[in-house]
């Protein structure tokens, strides 16, 4: 998990470098990155972080600027180009993701700034306003909002919910067709796939509550809400299950089946979710894995992963995985004279490596041992 957190930081720096089109590959001042250290969550400063990943970043002295600069290595630049190619080759999938995302909104409308926050997670091209929205006026319409400098994306034609199948429905069909189906077929209609880590032992009463929750009917993410549920216990549980279904579908639409909690919270009002999104993830550890290390809280869809890898990889994920592999490698395997460090930085790197190794081998996670259905 530490590697993934560092990958997010690497991507943030990479985006800053690629935003400067002055050279090929484009550089950025190390001083500039150091000034942004706090915003980029670089606790030890940009210089120390850049030196941890010499396969991704190259630090050099620019005589024209009279200061050290940073650029992407040829390998990292090629990965970036391959990612752009993979995204451009999957425009139909991108359009489908946006259509589904807008269809989950009560008004079939979402703020453009919210889409911008998850453009990478959805596998959108960085110019999606021009290449996707403007090129498909029969599907998407950009409107001015009541607030200044705020725009909305509205779905021009809303597909019927029969044409939009939620990801969980595909799992139910597949599961029902299995000879060794683990869930009673009569209970499958409203069930979600659950999987718990070996370290988490469910008590008998908790298993019973999960089983009851699985049977509970709910309004699907693409279905219209015909009426507001009464604030009875059953009504609250149905509202909560619909919210779970929406965030489950949201994660299923992402390229890597993961998103930062803060980002998905921007859609809460538009999806009609009155509950705390973070609590939804904590209350359903069999469906979601919530990483709370550091300042960024990230949620993963459990069923999408096995042994740390996506079960059904897509072209964009395959390319991004190459960048993660470089993050995992760090400086390992490089000769000391290939990349010199001060003694203090070397000790810090050794400490980081030992800590990451311990976390990878024996990391234990605390979960809330109750579900919302039990309240």
From TrEMBL:
InterPro entries for the chain: PORR_domain, PORR_fam
Pfam families named in the record: PORR
Biased composition annotated in UniProt, kind: Acidic residues: 345-361
Molecular function per GO: hydrolase activity; RNA binding
Key words, A-Z: Hydrolase
Name of the featured protein: Putative ubiquitin carboxyl-terminal hydrolase family protein
Chain segments carrying region Disordered: 340-375
């Amino acid at each position: 998990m530490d590697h993934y957190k560092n990958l997010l930081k690497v991507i943030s720096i990479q985006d800053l470098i690629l935003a400067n089109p002055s050279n090929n590959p484009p550089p950025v001042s190390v001083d500039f990155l150091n000034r942004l250290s706090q915003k980029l969550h670089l606790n030890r400063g940009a210089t120390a972080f850049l030196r941890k990943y010499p396969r991704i970043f190259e630090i050099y002295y620019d005589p024209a600027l009279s200061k050290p600069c940073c650029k992407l290595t040829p390998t990292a630049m090629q990965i970036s180009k391959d990612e752009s190619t993979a995204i451009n080759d999957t425009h139909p999938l991108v359009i489908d993701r946006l259509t589904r995302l807008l269809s989950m909104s009560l008004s079939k409308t979402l703020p453009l700034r919210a889409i911008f926050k998850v453009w990478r997670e959805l596998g959108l091209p960085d110019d999606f306003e021009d290449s996707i929205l403007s090129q498909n006026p029969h599907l998407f319409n950009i409107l001015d909002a009541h607030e200044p400098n705020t725009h909305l994306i509205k779905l021009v034609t809303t597909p019927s919910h029969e044409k939009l199948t939620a990801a969980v429905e595909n799992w139910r069909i597949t599961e029902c067709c299995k000879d060794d189906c683990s869930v009673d077929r009569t209970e499958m209609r409203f069930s979600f796939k659950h999987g718990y880590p070996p370290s988490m032992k469910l008590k008998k009463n908790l298993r019973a509550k999960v089983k009851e929750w699985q049977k509970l009917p709910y309004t699907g993410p693409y279905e219209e809400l015909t009426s507001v549920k009464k604030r009875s216990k059953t009504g609250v549980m149905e509202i909560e299950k619909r919210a779970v279904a929406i965030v489950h579908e949201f994660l299923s639409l992402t390229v890597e089946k993961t998103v930062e909690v803060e980002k998905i919270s921007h859609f809460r009002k538009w999806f009609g979710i009155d509950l705390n999104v973070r609590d939804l993830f904590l209350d359903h550890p069999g469906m979601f894995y919530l990483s709370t290390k550091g300042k960024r809280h990230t949620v993963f869809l459990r069923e999408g992963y096995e042994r740390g890898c996506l079960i059904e990889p897509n072209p964009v994920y395959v390319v991004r995985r190459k960048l993660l592999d470089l993050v995992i490698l760090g400086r390992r395997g490089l000769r000391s004279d290939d990349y010199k460090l001060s003694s203090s930085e070397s000790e810090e790197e050794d400490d980081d490596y030992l800590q990451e190794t311990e976390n990878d081998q024996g990391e234990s996670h605390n979960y809330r041992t109750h579900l919302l259905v039990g309240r």
